[in-house]
Amino acid sequence: MQEHLYRWRNKQLREHVAIIDGKISPTIVLKNATFLNVYIKKWQTANIWIYEDRIVFVGEDMPKKMTNTELVDCSGEYLVPGYVEPHSHPYQLYNPHSLAEYALKKGTTTLVNDNLMLLLLLEKKKAFSFIDSLQDIPASLFWWARFDSQSALREEEEFLDNEEVLDWLNHEAVIQGGELTNWPEILKEDDLSLYWMQETKRLRKSVEGHFPGASIRTLSKMKLLGADGDHESISAKELYLRLQLGYYAAIRHSSIRPDLRNILKELTAYDVKVWDYMMFTTDGATPTFYEEEGMIERCIEIAIEEGVPVEEAYAIGSINAAKYFNLEHRLGSIAPGRTAHINFLSSKENPIPTSVMAKGKWIVRNGETASDYMKPVDWPAYDFNPLKLDWEPDADDLHISMPFGMEMMSDVLLKPYAVKTESNKNLLSRSNNEAYVLLMDKEGKWLTSTYIKGFTDSLGGLASSYSNTGDVILLGKKKSDIQLAFQRMKELGGGIVLAHKGEIIFELPLRLQGVMANLKMEDVIEKERELKKLLQEFGYTFGDPVYTLLFLSSTHLPYIRITPSGIIDVMKKEVLFPSIMR
């Protein structure tokens, strides 16, 4: 029997104690196990008793009763706690279930997930039923409660009202508030978000910041208001400042910000002696990054390579995050009472597991992956259905009249530029890297349009229901190809579609509300690789088009964004040109 949602029942607890008294047999005994005790940062040898999904004993003794107990001799292996991903965005084409399935095989047995897409896509009751259902899988999945949409929605107050946020915060699977992408407003006059922060603290849950480039004064102010952690350090100096001020600080190794190795190199100048307040995160990396670079096991590997003491590197990837979330009584260590998340290693210095156990189940055993460890999801039961669109863009929608557009500075940073192109053209010139771009309401009620420079120099059309707001992105140089891509995306029930010279040349179905794929991670990886290759052939010169599409409407990044409310000057918080009703 697995954990009953978020705690063990009294009956289960009595059974756990009865095992030590010799009245009940453990499910598994790991004999002669050399394991890392993350509390004293030492390797010890013991016999580890497991009953169903929980570790019940760690010591020299063997159980008095071992009827039908699986006995595993761990001689020659090194055991460490299952790794913890403290900051996951489980909707980067994949979905929470497929990400967890993939993560388990690599030894990341706990993920703390962003709830943004659940807020956008589902009614609260369905969302709660969905996250409760995920307790039946071997991974431990937790969530955080957003305080803002990370964009400029037309009806923001309906998207996140007080009752909605408080209900999320009080859910047992929700273990933190934030991340605080709206921190500038909180510092000025957003008393409602400040109230939600205080409610989070009252519930003894963590408040996660989002403070890129913040000064010591800003970090101090946000600490006064209740922030506990931040994952936005891009240098050792920024990391060390956060540690000095009492923050838990996650270091990123992600597709957009692979900062970990450089930060650890720079950190040697600070003569760090204590590592207890650091964590690792991949911060919602794209599928191909996970295949090429791995997950938390790769972060630990990089840390060891850069001279972090081995025992500390594993602690950063496990118990530190558990402590940050006040879950150390349940996760992050190999000790009595903890969930049986255990990675088996060939050597202390190699964090890539040869075997993985999660909630007392073998996920990987001696390099072989179990075939039946994930319970499938009945997606329609939770209203994860194909996207239904009953509208199409017409000629008037594609008539763009805007004095300035958005020029790409990187994968995710956009600046304004003066537009000289005539908007009535069906086909934009190949002599520049300029394209039409529209954000259209998924219900077809409004649109925001302008030009984008730097995404492509030749692609006819792109249609994407994958966006930060769940609305539709249309982009390209030829209006007829844009319409063709949209028509195919509509037929698929959502997805990313490329059209060129009157033909569909790529499609990735995203049949879970148009945002996530109901596919294995391995299949999504192949499709993303194909997408990147095609877009690069059509003039995309940056590294991560998936994040470009996601963040086109994200107002936590400078300098200009296309949003449901219109074209936004992010720094001034001004709507420069409002969206248009259709």
UniProtKB/TrEMBL annotation:
Q: Out of the domains of life, which is the source?
A: Bacteria
Q: Keyword Hydrolase: yes or no?
A: yes
Give the record's keywords alphabetically.
Hydrolase
Q: Determine if Hydrolase is one of this entry's keywords.
A: yes
Q: Where in the numbering of this chain does the Adenine deaminase C-terminal domain appear?
A: 424-573
The name this protein carries in UniProt is Amidohydrolase family protein
Entries under InterPro entries matching the protein: Adenine_deam_C, Amidohydro-rel
Q: Which residues form the Amidohydrolase-related domain?
A: 78-363
A Pfam family annotated for this UniProt entry? Adenine_deam_C
